[in-house]
Design goal:
Elements (H helix, E strand, L loop, with lengths): L1 E8 L2 E8 L1 H19 L15 H32 L3 E11 L6 E9 L12 E6 L4 H14 L2 E5 L8 E10 L2 E14 L21 E7 L13 E15 L5 H5 L8 H35 L6 H19 L13 H23 L6 H12 L5 H9 L2 H23 L1 E6 L2 H8 L4
Parallel strand pairs: 5-11
Antiparallel strand pairs: 1-2, 2-4, 3-4, 6-10, 7-8, 7-10, 9-10
Helix pairs in contact: 1-2, 5-10, 5-11, 6-7, 8-9, 8-10
Length: 440
């Protein structure tokens, strides 16, 4: 096997490989035997079913097919053998092209492929991290209990005026310069006052209104509104309040507690469990905020050339996720979704993955077993049967590998923090959780 490699552009390489004719011919014999076996029980005119075809007939009928499959198999086998021998870090699958493919002659082919970029990470000392600290206070706990009650509230129609936190059912139509605009109309729209789901001023303008009242709201679209043609424009909305609904909060009793998987009739015991959940959430949020800043710092300080093959693979994964999330169970071909929808996100994910792997390799990190067990324990503690969760991860190598990957990411964060410029920032539960849940 003769091999030569040249750089064509960036991360793209072209490998030229020569394979002795004898090896290809030997592979042809193997393919013919395989075809002969598959044809054994096929009905062939002039020949008895169940008997092998004579070699000459087999060659005449299936020689071309055997040659094609032999050449393809040889290209694959020799290419991946060369990749191992040359210690090439292959990114994605190659494209093969036979350049000499004639019986009796040595096979020659080209394989075009991409390699992983060589990343020499810049020092971590220029990365700035704001490490937040917070705790779950009694006030945070009371707010959470109130929110849990609101989630389970019953909504009863009322003749009273609408107040912040009430629901209203409205018909509305919007006008700009006296003209109705597209998307500015709705009927029987259910709106919770104070949810900030409408443009500023809309919800405030309905506070104090009763069922059956009509009103005109003078408002303005925000300068950063998602529809460019409406940004910053003043508008009028004619609104009819069709119903006002007041919340009826459920009692904090045993039935209520069971709805959240907590078997107790005691309010204080319920509070203890809710506080534990909040503390777990807060801990995850603080870690995620720190990790986000570490990743951002790595991106800012390191330019990475991205293999297009890895981006294409990530686009396919994002397409599949989109189909699973929004496909509604219907059969849908994920490849029909335009690649452009996912390209930016895919490139970002690939860059992050390459940087994290580079950091792992440069520090020669291995999954810390204590961290892995701690992560499994954290996930298990959120379930009613934690032992089953522990057993699931510890007996399933593939699932445990995912936890090990998370542990490695945490170890990268710790490694960066050793050298980064870290400042402590006092915060609170609500702010930390809100920031952690914002899109990265």
């Amino acid at each position: 096997m003769q091999v030569s490699i040249e750089t064509t552009s960036g991360l793209e390489r072209c490998m030229t490989v020569g394979v002795p004719a004898a090896e290809v011919e030997a592979q042809e014999v193997v393919e013919l035997k395989r075809i002969a076996q598959s044809q054994k029980n096929q009905k062939t005119p002039g020949f008895r079913t169940g008997k092998p075809l004579p070699p000459k007939v087999l060659k005449q009928r299936f020689g071309k097919q055997a040659r094609l499959e032999a050449v393809y198999n040889q290209m694959q086998q020799t290419f991946f053998k060369a990749v191992q021998e040359q210690e090439i870090k292959l990114a994605g699958m190659p494209k093969f092209e036979p350049t000499v493919d004639e019986a009796g002659k040595d096979l020659e082919f080209k394989a075009v492929f991409e390699v992983y970029p060589e990343i020499a990470l810049a020092g971590f000392d220029s990365i700035k991290i704001e490490k937040r600290s917070a705790e779950v206070t009694d006030a945070d706990l009371d707010t959470m209990l109130e929110n849990l009650q609101k989630q389970q509230a019953k909504w009863n129609e009322s003749e009273e005026a609408a107040a912040d936190g009430d629901q209203v059912v409205v018909d509305f139509e919007g006008f700009i310069d006296g003209e109705a605009f597209e998307g500015g109309q709705a009927n029987d729209y259910n709106l919770t006052l104070g949810s900030n789901s409408m443009i500023p001023g809309f919800e405030d303008g309905l506070v104090g209104k009763k069922a059956g009242e009509e009103t005109t709201l003078d408002v303005a679209f925000p300068a950063d509104y998602h529809k460019e043609d409406l940004q910053g424009k003043p508008a009028q909305f004619k609104v009819t309040v069709k119903a006002v609904k007041k919340p009826e909060m459920p009692e904090l009793n045993e039935d209520f507690f069971k709805g959240f998987g907590i078997e107790t009739a005691d309010l204080e015991e319920f509070k203890v469990e809710i506080r534990k959940n909040m503390e777990r959430e807060l801990g995850r949020a603080i870690r995620n905020l720190t990790k986000q800043q570490v990743i951002a710092g790595l991106q800012e300080n390191n330019e990475v050339e991205v293999p297009s093959a890895l981006v294409d693979q990530e686009i396919d994964r994002l397409r599949q996720q989109a189909v699973q999330q929004f496909g509604g169970g219907q059969q849908m071909d994920a490849s029909m979704l335009p690649a452009e929808l996912f390209k930016e996100q895919a490139e970002k994910r690939v860059v992050i993955g390459l940087l994290m792997n580079a950091a792992i390799e440069s520090a020669d990190l291995k999954p810390d077993e204590e961290k892995v067990e701690a992560l499994i324990e954290e996930m298990a503690s959120a379930y009613q049967e934690p032992e089953q969760v522990r057993e699931y991860y510890n007996s399933n190598p593939q699932q445990k590998a995912q936890v090990e990957a998370l542990a490695l990411e945490d170890q990268v964060v710790e490694k960066v923090l050793e050298s980064a410029q870290v400042s402590e920032v006092e915060s609170n539960y609500e702010e930390v959780v809100r920031l952690a849940n914002q899109p990265a």
